[in-house]
Design brief:
single chain, globular, about 650 residues, about 20% helix, 12 helices, 4-stranded antiparallel β-sheet, 8-stranded mixed β-sheet, alpha+beta
Length: about 650
């Protein structure tokens, strides 16, 4: 077994090899899971841990950087790995998930998360919260790693089946057993822990009333420091601030800082002193999409924002700012992304996928080198990667839409190309610059690929996001076809050879393209898409156990429903409009999808068949909403391209 594991490590995580040569890689090269799932530097920067993948086989590998010696290579089977964290220098936390239900507790089929602690010296593996009396050995929220005065520590919340509490536990690293350190219940929405493992703030959210409150320490208890009614847009905690007794809260408080409100959400990132309760806006030049904390102290040192060319970082800590400027100079025009760093910030792991399929580089400031330590898609060389061009065009009502056009590899002057419109999920999400396996796979077969950040997408301001409310099947849909018309006017594509593809919300957009925005697309491929909006929201209500849940309120607002079971949604539901379809449709859905149930695709397929319309339905055994498994992801890609080439041939 060890020989097999080492072979996996060498195949997936070694230095650059010869690649696939000039020949176009097979679709399996694009559809395979990335060769490296996760990769992390140890606190000292001397070791590197990674989850490597070949096919469905996953292994954890730990290597000494200076010598290249493999200290550990252990199989972890076909687990869906979701996180990898160091616990000091001697242990690694592996978080995985499984699609399960717990009928005896009334937990519907959902994605449950599990933590395993691997001891590098003994090779022992223990499950987090195992042997904790009355507590399920599943993680409730993210686990937290700290280096405390008592040593390296792991903290996790767990559900107590006896009393319903979801307390925070300190985990025994040798046994996995948890010891309650802070009492929490189902209304405890989040918490902030300082660098020593002390909880210094908690958030409480009562879903039925929509009441959110910030609770700060007062002696051994927590006091309610601020409350707000937030039926949909709740405040949020974002870790520690710039001092050991401060936290970051994202909240809409115009009375404190109206001029610096985030144009996207109305929220300001405030630094709150947990002892005095004083609030002050953070002095970022532009509000970041995410924050960065020091790997050792956990103090806030910067943030990052997704922009047109990639992620841009802003650091408040001078040393980190200086080093990141050096990294950007070393990779001009590549928009490197920060992955992991050592405690002293002298070793930094970055990921680069501008014009290539994805390289992990280890930047060592002491040695002045930036070595390649892994590849995301080793079989796909830079010459196989199509150019990704940022584009902008006007929607029919004049709203500017930004996005990306991926060209077939080697094409510099596109003219009259067949086009695939690839709609992103969410819909409150966005496409970004860089290597997209799905777009690149289709481009490798000769298609241009349009990825438009239609109204309702994030990253373009609050007004742009809110412009999508109630626009499912309406302006959110025509934003996509307006892009087709613009590319036609530019001579880039052939308007007679256009299909639409997407997953999740993008799957809805693919179906809506054939029913609500006809005469644009020759065919559609919907992966894990929503076909019946009213049925979908009613399903969410059943999952949540109440009609007035936060999730139901969110979807009603975005879809434009006045209430639960609003029949107005039927006019926007492709499953209700199958008679209008004139183009063939392929439906693909994972049987283990707990985000959009597979019945959504089955309902659409049945409606198409009753209407005598051309439809195919492919159900993926063992697959979830995120295409987490290599074999089914490859199957999805093969079937998608087969269908496109049949109904929208390149030649």
């Amino acid at each position: 077994m060890r020989a097999i594991v080492l072979a996996v490590v060498m195949a997936a995580g070694g230095a650059l090899g010869n690649g696939a040569g000039a020949q176009t890689p097979p679709l399996e090269a694009y559809g395979a899971s990335p060769a490296i799932d996760y990769i992390e530097l140890s606190p000292s920067g001397e070791l590197i841990a990674r989850i490597v993948v070949v096919g469905e086989t996953r292994a954890i590998a730990v290597t000494r950087i200076k010598t290249g010696e493999h200290l550990l290579a252990a199989p972890i089977g076909e687990a869906k790995v979701r996180d990898l964290r160091w616990i000091g220098e001697g242990r690694v936390l592996i978080v995985s998930s499984e699609t399960q239900a717990i009928p005896q507790l009334g937990v519907p089929r959902s994605e449950l998360f599990f933590g395993m602690i691997l001891d590098l010296e003994t090779k022992a593996l223990v499950q987090v919260l195992k042997r904790t009396p009355d507590v399920l050995a599943t993680l409730y929220g993210a686990a937290a790693v700290r280096r405390t005065a008592q040593g390296d520590a792991l903290f996790a919340r767990g559900v107590n089946v006896a009393n319903g509490q979801i307390d925070l536990h300190r985990i025994d690293l040798n046994t996995g057993r948890g010891r309650t350190i802070v009492s929490m219940d189902r209304n405890t929405d989040d918490y902030v822990m300082d660098g020593e493992g002390e909880v210094i703030a908690m958030a409480r959210y009562v879903e039925r009333s929509g009441r959110w409150s910030l609770r700060l320490p007062e002696g051994r208890r927590f006091r309610e420091a601020w409350t707000v009614d937030a039926l949909v847009d709740t405040p949020s905690l974002h870790g520690m601030g710039r001092s050991a007794r401060s936290i970051i809260v994202g909240a809409d408080r115009p009375e404190l800082s109206s001029e610096s409100a985030d144009p996207e959400t109305g929220n300001v990132l405030f630094e709150v002193n947990v002892d005095t309760g004083e609030w002050a806006p953070l002095p970022f030049e532009r509000r970041p999409d995410f924050l960065l904390h020091h790997p050792r102290s956990r103090l806030l040192i910067g943030g990052g924002r997704v922009e047109e060319e990639g992620v841009r970082y802003e650091f408040s800590e001078p040393g980190a700012a200086r080093r990141w400027r050096a990294i950007e100079r070393a990779f001009p025009g590549k928009a490197p992304r920060l992955v992991s760093w050592s405690d002293d910030l002298t070793s930094v792991l970055v990921f680069i996928d501008g014009g290539e399929s994805g390289l992990y580089r280890l930047v060592d400031f002491e040695r002045g080198v930036a070595d390649v330590v892994g590849e995301a898609y080793p079989a796909i060389l830079a010459e196989h990667v199509g150019a990704v061009r940022p584009i902008r065009y006007a929607a029919a009502d004049g709203l500017e839409i930004q996005g990306y056009l991926t060209l077939p590899p080697g094409v510099e002057t596109p003219q009259g190309l067949p086009l695939i419109v690839l709609a992103h999920g969410g819909p409150a999400a966005r496409d970004v610059a860089g290597f997209d396996y799905w777009a690149q796979a289709m481009a490798s077969r000769g298609y241009a690929v349009l990825q438009a950040n239609f109204r309702g997408s994030t990253g373009y301001g609050r007004a742009f996001l809110e412009a999508g409310y109630g626009e499912w099947g309406r302006k959110m849909q025509t934003d996509l076809s307006d892009g087709v018309r613009w590319l036609t006017s530019e001579g880039v594509i052939d308007p007679a050879r256009v299909c639409i593809v997407g997953a999740s919300y993008g799957g809805y957009a693919a179906m809506a393209g054939l029913t609500l925005d006809k005469d644009v697309y020759r065919c559609g491929v919907a992966v894990s898409g929503v076909s019946d909006l009213r049925r979908m929201v009613n399903w969410e209500a059943r999952q949540q156990g109440r009609a007035n849940s936060h999730v139901v309120r969110y979807w009603n607002r975005f879809m434009g429903a006045a209430r639960l079971n609003d029949r107005a949604l039927d006019a926007l539901s492709p499953a209700m409009l199958a008679d209008a379809v004139d183009s063939p449709l392929l439906l693909i859905h994972g049987k283990d999808d707990t985000v959009v149930p597979i019945e959504q695709s089955r309902v659409m397929a049945d409606a198409m068949r009753r209407a005598g319309k051309p439809v195919e339905l492919i159900e993926l055994t063992g697959e979830d909403h995120w295409m987490s498994r290599s074999d089914t992801r490859q199957q999805m890609l093969r079937e998608t391209v087969r269908f496109l080439e049949l109904h929208n041939p390149v030649e």
